[in-house]
Write a structure and sequence with these properties.
The complex is a heterodimer.
Chain A: H1 2-15, H2 19-58, E1 61-65, H3 90-98, E2 103-118, H4 121-139, H5 143-173, H6 181-191, H7 193-197, H8 203-214, E3 222-231, H9 233-239, E4 243-248, E5 258-261, H10 262-269, H11 272-285, H12 294-305, H13 308-311, H14 316-330, H15 337-345, H16 352-363, E6 377-383, E7 389-402, H17 409-412, E8 414-418, H18 419-426, H19 431-444, H20 454-459, E9 468-470, H21 478-481, H22 487-496, H23 501-505, E10 511-516, H24 522-531, H25 533-537, E11 540-544, H26 545-548, H27 551-588, H28 590-598, H29 603-639, E12 641-642, H30 646-652, E13 656-657, H31 663-689, H32 693-700
Parallel strand pairs in A: 3-8, 5-7
Antiparallel strand pairs in A: 1-10, 1-11, 2-3, 2-10, 4-7, 5-8, 6-7, 12-13
Helix pairs in contact in A: 1-29, 2-27, 2-29, 2-31, 4-5, 4-8, 5-6, 6-8, 11-12, 11-16, 12-15, 14-15, 27-31, 28-32, 29-31
Chain B: H1 2-22, H2 28-42, E1 47-57, E2 64-73, E3 78-85, E4 93-97, E5 100-105, E6 110-114, H3 127-130, H4 135-138, E7 139-149, E8 152-161, E9 171-177, E10 183-189, E11 195-209, E12 214-226, E13 233-242, H5 253-258
Antiparallel strand pairs in B: 1-2, 1-13, 2-3, 3-4, 4-5, 5-6, 7-8, 8-9, 9-10, 10-11, 11-12, 12-13
The chains are: A alpha+beta, B alpha+beta.
Family (chain A): Belongs to the ABC-4 integral membrane protein family. LolC/E subfamily.
Subcellular location (chain A): Cell membrane
InterPro entries (chain A): ABC3_permease_C, Lipoprotein-release_system
Chain lengths: ~700, ~260
C-alpha cells in the first residue's frame, strides 16, 4: 500500500515536470474528447433516426419477396423506385409472421411513383364547365348549377381577354407571320357577344371550340411526380405512432382514399405566390433579411413578376374585388390588377409581416390556395409494371405528417394511399388478364421478327415477292368489338364502395412492416424469422429497418466507421508518440533508475513506477477530455443542436438534436486510454528494469 | 505517259455517259410527285375505319397487346383511336381535333391534351402511324440514291420537316420500292440527328373505295423498332378496313365518352 502511495506520489510529481508529458497529455485529451463527443453524437443520431424511421414507415423489420431484383428502399432508391417483386397475397404472409411471439403487428405495404397531370387554367376551368353541362344533360338544370355555369362562363370569357392581351404584347415583339391566324381568329370570336349568346344552343360544340382553339394558347399546365405508399390505412395509423393527421380526416375504414403528406401538399400543390410568401416569412422570422439575402430577393422578384397564376384564377367579379381590395390596402388609384399585384408583392423587411397578413386576409378568400382541395378527387397516372397505362381517381381526405420529420423532404415525399387503389395503379397481372392477352396474341397470328435480322426476314429471299395484296372490305361494328365494363358507372361506385378487411388483405403487396412487442430483441427476432421454415418456404427476405430504408439507413453506420477509423489512426499515432516519449524519458532517467536499483528497488518496482506514471497521465488528461466531452454533450442535450438544413431534419428526427451521453461511450473512452497508455509504455518500462546500477553510475560519469 | 492517260479519261467519260441513263435519281419534282402518290393512295375521299391489333414488347416485361378501332375523316383532318381490348383498356381512346391530340380514359372520366410525341397507349407507335399520310405537305425531300433492301430495289429519300409544322420527328428517311412506290422502310430522327425509330412496312393492301372511286392503300403490317430503348418494339396489324360512311358527329368528345357508358 505504501509502495503504491509512493509510486502515485512519484507519478503525480512527474506529471507536469516534462514538456513531453504535456504533449502526450494533450493528444490523449483530444482523443478521449473525440471518442466521448463523437460517439455520443452518433449514438444520438442513430437513436433518433431509428425512432423516426421505425415509427414512420419501416417498422422494426420489413419483409419482401426474395425474387426481387433490387433491395427494398422505402424512401426511394438512387434511380427511382427499386424493382421489388410482388407478393401475390398478403394474408398467408401475415399469418406466418404473426406466429412469432415477438411480432405485434404486420402492416401491408407497397411504394410506387406516378404522375399527376393537370391541364392549364383554361383547361381546368373548361373541364369544370363540361362537368356541369354533363350533369345538366343527365339530371336536368337546377338554378344553383345555372349560377355556377354563368360564373364559369364569365371566367372563361375573361381568360380569353387576358390571352388576347398577352398576344398583343407578344405581337409587338414578333413578326406578323409567326402568329397563327387560327389562334387570332379564335381569340376574336371569344370576345364577341354573339358567341356567348349562342353558347347554350350547343354547349358541347361550344366547349369543344374553346378546348381546341382557346385552351392550347395558355401554357401554365404541368406534370407533377408523386410518390406514394399503398397500405392498409387503418392498421397503419394504429401501428405507426409518429403519423399524425394535420388537416382533414383519416380515410374511413375500407374506403379508397389518400392522405397527402403536409410537406408535399405545401411544397408542390400550394399557390406558388403563397408558398413563397410563407418561406419569406419563415426566413425573416429566422433572422434572415431580404435586403441582404439573394435567395429571399429572388423569391420577392418571382412573386412580383409571376402574377398570372393569381390573375388567371379570378373570374370578373373576383378580379374586381381583388382590384378594389388592393387599391384600398395600397392607397392606390391604379386600375390594372397585374400592376397592383406587382406593387403589393414587392415586399421588403419593413412591410413583409403586414403584407403577409393582408395577402391571407384579403386575397386568399378569392383564390384556390391549393391545386387540389381536401375532399377533391385526384387523378393519378401510372405506367404500370405490365406496360398498360393506368389512371385511377383517388379522393383526398386530408394531410398528415410524421412527427419530428415535418420538414424532411425525404419523409415528406411519402403520400399514403389505400391498398386497393395502389394495386390498380401497380397494374398487377392477374391470371385472367394474362389469359386474355395470350388469347389475343394467339388470334393475331403474328410471328416475332427480331430486330437483328428484320430486313432479311421481311424483304430477303425468303420473303414473298409481291408486297401488295387485294383486301376484302371489312364490316366493322364497334359495338361488337367493345366489351365495356360500364366504366362510367363503375367510376362512381368505386369511390363509394367499402372494402372488407379481407378484400384489403387478400391481395398483392410489395412488402410488410413488422412492429415488435420488444424492440430490444430486434436482432434475435430477425435471425429467428430468417431461419423460420415458413418464411423460407414463402421465399421471403427479412431485413431490419436500417436495411429497409436503403442508403439512409447505412448513413449512420458509415459515419460510425469514419469516426472509428479516425480514432484508430489517432490511437496508433498516440501509441507511437507515447512509446517514443517514454523511451526518451526513460533514457534520461537512467541515473535515477540506477540509483533506485542501487538502494534496493526491485525490478517490479521500477516497472510499476513507469507504467503507473503513464496510466496517471492517461487518466488525468483522458479524464479531462472525457469530462469536457461529457460537459459539452450534456450542455447540447440541454439546448439542442438546431437542424440547419432540411436534410438534417431527417437525421435529427425533428428541429433539434438533443444528444445524450451513454455510459458505454464513457467506459470505451476510459478503457481505450488506459489500454493504449499501458501498451505503449510496456517496452520502455521493460528496458528501464534492465538498467543495472553499475551501468547507471558509469553512464553518468 | 499521255498514251496511258487518254484511254483512262475516255473510259471515265464513257462510264459517266453510260451510267447516266441507268441511274434513277429523282429530281425535286419527281420526288414531290412520289410523295404525293404515297399520300394520295392512302387517302380516302370519304371516311375510313379500321380494326387494328397492337403488340408491344419491352425488356423484362410481359408483352402488352391491344385491339383498337381507328377512325379517319381525311377531308377534315380528323382521327380517333378507340381501344376495344383487353377489357381493362376498353373505352380508352385518342381524338385528334385541329392541332390537339386528346386522350381519354373512361376509368377516370378525364380528357387530357397530349403532344405529337405521345407514345400511343405507351407503345412505340405515334399518332402519325395511324393517321392519314401527309408527307408531301409536311416534309421537303432530298434524294439519297438507289439501294437494295433485301431483294427489292428502293429509292432512298431524306425528308426535312417544313417550318412551322409540328411533327413528331423533324427528319425522316424513307426507302420506297421502285416497282410499287410503297414505303418499305422508314427511319425517324430527332432534331439532334439521333435515330429514334426504325419502321418496316412488309405488307401493303389495297381496297376499292366507292367514295374515292379509286383504290385506298394501307400498310397491313407495321413493325416498329425503338432505337433508344433497343429492346422495345411494336407491331401494328390492320386486321380489316371498312370504308362506309361514319356517323356525322363521331369525331367529338361526347361520342367517344358515350362508347364506355
Amino acid at each position: 500500500m505504501t509502495t503504491l502511495l509512493l509510486l502515485l506520489e512519484v507519478a503525480f510529481r512527474n506529471l507536469f515536470k516534462s514538456w513531453v508529458n504535456l504533449i502526450i497529455g494533450g493528444i490523449i485529451f483530444f482523443a478521449t474528447f473525440l471518442v466521448v463527443t463523437g460517439g455520443a453524437l452518433l449514438d444520438s443520431i442513430d437513436s433518433s433516426m431509428s425512432r423516426s424511421i421505425v415509427g414512420s414507415l419501416a417498422g422494426h423489420l420489413q419483409v419482401y419477396s426474395d425474387k426481387s431484383k433490387d433491395e427494398l428502399s422505402l424512401f426511394g432508391g438512387m434511380s427511382g423506385e427499386p424493382d421489388v417483386a410482388a407478393i401475390d397475397s398478403f394474408t398467408p404472409i401475415k399469418q406466418a409472421l404473426e406466429k412469432h411471439p415477438n411480432v405485434q403487428t404486420v402492416v401491408p405495404m407497397g411504394s410506387n411513383g406516378a404522375l399527376i397531370s393537370s391541364g392549364n387554367t383554361v383547361d381546368l376551368t373548361l373541364a369544370r364547365l363540361r362537368d356541369l353541362y354533363r350533369k345538366n344533360a343527365d339530371e336536368g338544370e337546377t338554378p344553383e348549377r345555372r349560377a355556377q355555369i354563368d360564373s364559369l362562363k364569365a371566367h372563361v370569357r375573361r381568360l380569353g381577354e387576358l390571352l388576347q392581351a398577352d398576344m398583343q404584347k407578344r405581337s409587338a415583339l414578333l413578326r406578323e407571320e409567326s402568329q397563327d391566324p387560327a389562334e387570332v381568329e379564335a381569340l376574336e370570336r371569344v370576345r364577341t357577344d354573339a358567341f356567348w349568346a349562342d353558347f347554350d344552343k350547343e354547349p358541347f360544340a361550344s366547349l369543344e371550340f374553346l378546348e381546341n382553339r382557346l385552351a392550347p394558347q395558355a401554357a401554365d399546365g404541368d406534370l407533377l411526380y408523386i410518390r406514394y405508399v399503398g397500405t392498409d390505412l387503418e392498421s397503419f395509423q394504429k401501428s405507426f405512432d409518429r403519423m399524425q393527421i394535420v388537416d382533414g380526416q383519416p380515410v374511413p375504414p375500407g374506403k379508397r382514399g389518400m392522405l397527402l403528406s403536409k410537406f408535399f401538399y405545401e411544397e408542390s400543390l400550394k399557390l406558388k405566390t403563397a408558398r413563397r410568401l410563407d418561406l419569406l416569412k419563415e426566413a425573416h422570422e429566422g433572422g434572415r433579411l431580404i435586403a441582404e439575402d439573394p435567395q429571399l430577393q429572388r423569391w420577392v422578384s418571382e412573386n412580383r413578376t409571376q402574377t398570372r397564376e393569381i390573375i388567371f384564377q379570378l373570374d370578373p367579379i373576383k378580379a374586381q374585388q381583388a382590384t378594389e381590395r388592393l387599391q384600398r390596402v395600397l392607397g392606390s388609384q391604379e386600375k390594372e390588377l397585374s400592376k397592383l399585384l406587382s406593387t403589393f408583392l414587392d415586399v421588403n423587411d419593413g412591410n413583409l409581416a403586414a403584407r403577409y397578413e393582408q395577402f391571407y386576409a384579403q386575397l386568399v378568400p378569392l383564390l384556390d390556395l391549393y391545386r387540389i382541395r381536401l375532399g377533391d378527387t385526384l387523378t393519378i397516372t401510372a405506367f404500370t409494371r405490365t406496360g398498360y397505362v393506368q389512371n385511377v381517381n383517388v379522393p383526398i381526405y386530408g394531410t398528415y405528417q410524421f412527427n419530428g420529420l415535418e420538414k424532411s423532404p425525404l419523409a415528406g415525399s411519402v403520400n399514403l394511399m389505400d391498398l386497393v387503389s395502389f394495386r390498380e395503379l401497380y397494374g398487377y397481372l392477374t391470371e385472367d388478364k394474362r389469359a386474355e392477352i395470350a388469347q389475343l396474341q394467339a388470334k393475331s397470328g403474328l410471328a416475332e421478327v427480331k430486330r437483328e435480322n428484320a430486313e432479311d426476314a421481311l424483304f430477303g429471299e425468303e420473303a414473298p415477292s409481291t408486297l401488295v395484296a387485294e383486301a376484302t372490305p371489312g364490316l366493322i361494328n364497334e359495338n361488337e368489338q367493345i366489351q365495356s365494363e360500364g366504366a362510367a358507372l363503375r367510376k362512381e361506385d368505386l369511390l363509394k364502395r367499402v372494402y372488407s378487411k379481407r378484400e384489403v388483405e387478400d391481395g398483392m403487396v410489395l412488402s410488410a412492416a413488422l412492429i415488435l412487442k420488444d424492440p430490444s430483441k430486434l436482432e434475435s427476432t430477425l435471425a429467428e424469422l430468417q431461419q423460420s421454415p415458413e418464411v423460407q418456404d414463402a421465399k421471403l427476405r427479412v431485413v431490419s429497418w436500417q436495411k429497409a430504408v436503403g442508403l439512409i439507413g447505412q448513413f449512420v453506420l458509415l459515419m460510425k466507421m469514419v469516426l472509428w477509423g479516425i480514432i484508430v489512426i489517432l490511437f496508433v499515432v498516440v501509441l507511437a508518440i507515447i512509446n517514443n516519449a517514454v523511451m526518451m524519458a526513460t533514457l534520461q532517467r537512467v541515473r535515477e533508475v540506477g540509483t533506485m536499483r542501487a538502494i534496493g528497488a526491485q525490478r517490479t518496482f521500477i516497472l510499476s513506477m513507469i507504467l503507473l506514471e503513464t496510466v496517471v497521465l492517461g487518466m488525468v488528461f483522458g479524464g479531462a477530455g472525457a469530462g469536457l466531452g461529457s460537459g459539452l454533450i450534456s450542455y447540447l442535450g440541454h439546448v439542442g443542436i438546431p437542424a440547419v438544413s432540411e436534410e438534417l431534419y431527417f437525421f435529427f428526427s425533428g428541429p433539434r438534436l438533443l444528444p445524450f451521453l451513454s455510459l458505454g461511450n464513457f467506459i470505451t473512452a476510459f478503457l481505450l486510454v488506459v489500454g493504449v497508455s499501458i501498451f505503449s509504455t510496456l517496452y520502455p518500462a521493460f528496458l528501464a528494469t534492465r538498467v543495472s546500477p553499475v551501468t547507471a553510475m558509469q553512464t553518468d560519469e | 505517259m499521255p498514251m496511258t492517260v487518254q484511254p483512262l479519261l475516255c473510259a471515265a467519260l464513257a462510264a459517266v455517259l453510260l451510267a447516266a441513263p441507268t441511274a434513277l435519281a429523282l429530281d425535286a419534282a419527281e420526288m414531290k410527285k412520289l410523295l404525293e402518290i404515297i399520300d394520295d393512295r392512302q387517302r380516302n375521299g370519304g371516311d375510313y375505319k379500321s380494326l387494328a391489333y397492337l403488340e408491344q414488347k419491352e425488356k423484362d416485361k410481359a408483352d402488352t397487346v391491344r385491339e383498337a378501332l381507328v377512325y379517319r375523316r381525311d377531308a377534315d383532318d380528323k382521327l380517333m383511336i378507340l381501344f376495344s381490348k383487353p377489357k381493362g383498356e376498353a373505352g380508352k381512346g385518342y381524338l385528334r381535333l385541329d392541332k390537339n391530340l386528346w386522350s381519354y380514359d373512361p376509368n377516370v372520366g378525364k380528357w387530357e391534351r397530349r403532344t405529337e410525341r405521345e407514345r400511343i397507349a405507351g407503345t412505340d407507335s405515334r399518332r402519325a402511324d395511324f393517321d392519314e399520310s401527309r408527307l408531301a405537305e409536311e416534309y421537303e425531300p432530298t434524294y439519297e440514291g438507289e439501294e437494295a433492301l433485301g431483294k427489292f430495289k428502293v429509292h432512298k429519300l431524306s425528308l426535312q420537316a417544313r417550318s412551322g409544322i409540328d411533327v413528331a420527328y423533324p427528319v425522316i428517311k424513307l426507302w420506297v420500292d421502285t416497282a410499287t412506290s410503297n414505303i418499305l422502310k422508314r427511319q425517324e430522327f430527332a432534331l439532334s440527328g439521333r435515330l429514334m425509330r426504325t419502321l418496316y412496312y412488309p405488307k401493303w393492301q389495297k381496297l376499292f373505295s366507292e367514295s374515292k372511286s379509286a383504290e385506298v392503300w394501307y400498310p397491313q403490317e407495321i413493325r416498329i423498332y425503338d432505337e433508344v430503348e433497343k429492346a422495345n418494339s411494336t407491331v401494328i396489324l390492320i386486321k380489316s378496313v371498312d370504308l362506309r360512311a361514319l356517323e356525322a358527329n363521331i369525331f367529338t368528345k361526347a361520342w367517344l365518352e358515350s362508347k364506355s357508358r
